[in-house]
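Sample intake sheet
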Amino acid sequence: MPQLPDDLDAVAVRTWCSLALEALGRERAEIDAINVYPVADGDTGTNLYLTVESAAAAVEAVFAAHETGTTAPATADAVRAMAHGALIGARGNSGTILAQLLRGMAGVLADGGDAAHLRLALTSAADAARQAVAHPVEGTVLTVAAGAAEAARGEDPGLSTVVTAAYEGARAALARTPDQLAVLGRAGVVDAGGRGLVAVLGALVETVTGQAPVRTPRTASGHAAKAPVTVDGGSVVGLPVGGTPVEGVTEGGLPADAPGDGPPGCPEDGAAGPAFEVIYLLEAHDEQVARLRTRLDALGDSLVVVGGDGLWHVHVHVDDAGAAVEAGVEAGRPYRIRITHFATESGHDVRVQAEPAQRAVVVVVPGDGLAGLCTEAGATTVIARPGEPPASGELVDAIRRAHAREVVLLPNDAALRHTAAAAAEQARTEGVRVALVPTRAAVQGIAALAVHEPGRGFDEDVVAMTAAAGATRYAELAVAERQSWTMAGICQAGDVLGLIDGDVAVIGADVPGTARTVLDRMLAAGGELVTLVLGEDVPDALADALEAHVREGHLAVDTMVYRGGHQRAPLLIGVE
């Protein structure tokens, strides 16, 4: 039997993320089914799952960086990675609030993971989430988070006691949400976001105690049973747990004959509600974000802005999506912009209303420069920024945005092979024919995209793209952060490393010299075309010098140069 944690260390945080992802995976469809507030778009469970998936991936990345060490990562590193992963991967109103809850907890748990710190963390999380919402409404996930914090506040020291109290407090608060928010009461459901938070806290209970909370049983007919919850000194109330529509309620979750009377400014108040959901990450200073909140609040509703330290996640429902994005441009640098039209049948991008194309290419790129290049070539792009690999949900969204019957997916990173495979499988269940070309670097993706011919047969096109990618050797330059053993010997901090096909092959003192050595080694095996992708801080003079070096030593070899923008490596090299 595994040893149970005395406090929330890095290993416990990793386990919590994994169990929370499993729990939301099991309950995703049921949570989607009871999603009626603030918009009955049936995606709260999915958004929470994708948010936690991103958090879990970030924690796994921290552990992967410690694979060669003898100790686990520091707790502070794990909880901060969890919060950052949730922030950059947050989806929808519910996912954005969950990201802020995790961020609020991480700020305290980074200093300690015992019972006392956990109590403070739960309170910090509830307060931070409430402050992030422009107009907090009771009967939502905010109420459930507050219930968890309040229940844990007076408990005796002991981690298992505190987490169990928080879980039960959240369940009790969740049971009361239909009485606090009219739209929930009419539909006969609890708040979907709150139910998702209960699942996440249930995973924390299992992490600490080793025992999963008892899941709500179902009746023989398959309908969700009502789970008893103790509240108000021992009285028992029924907890509707969703999954099956309530009689007299429409598929969207609202009573078939009841007019809306939700809080002012929300879709349930009888008006149609804003047409678009706008989400983006934003790099900006605190004072700029304060002005952004004011402007977005005047444009729409369901405004949630979370984050800090220069990186923010913005979520708002508006009629003028362009104005919401422009407000972000004025405040700082928005990216990963996602605009969803609520009126579409599937709840995804408005372009799905048009007739789908026969074939499209979805490509992951490491910077803005290559994104522009690939977009000009007709591909749908997903930008993988340094330290922020896309989750499977983001790749699925890109496949949907491509809006084609057939899609070729180019992940351009060996570390994304499982993520890309999961996204492809999800898209196939939605009726899209997807082929995954296992490109391991951006230069392989460029080579594959160069031979793409949408007019030929799908299989033939995929074979040609796969062959072009496979015939392209790839390299990149990196700067060593510390002394370590490599395939080329021992490197020191500050050394320039030349990685060929993923392994360190050259250790140099500067970028130009290392790049020349890497090129010579790659071209020794032959080649007809060299592709150079420069990072945003690399001068054009380097490309000119390397192009001249290739021309002098290899007369029959051509060179192509691209600007990659803000990417992890200062230089990417491909040889075909």
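Comment: The two ends are 53 Å apart (CA to CA). The CA atoms of residues 476 and 572 lie 4 Å apart.
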